[in-house]
Amino acid sequence: MLTVDHLSRSILQPVSFSLADGECLAVQGPSGSGKSLLLRAIADLDPHEGTISLDGVACHTIPAPQWRLQVMYLPAEAGWWEDRVDAHFPDWEAACFWVEALQLPTSIRSAAIRTLSTGERQRLALARALVRSPRVLMLDEPTSGLDRTSVSIVESLLLQLLQNGTSLLWVTHDPAQAQRIAQRCLHVQNGHVLETTLRTSVIS
Ligand SMILES: Nc1ncnc2c1ncn2[C@@H]1O[C@H](COP(=O)(O)OP(=O)(O)OP(=O)(O)O)[C@@H](O)[C@H]1O
Question: Does residue 97 sit within a domain?
Answer without folding.
Answer: no
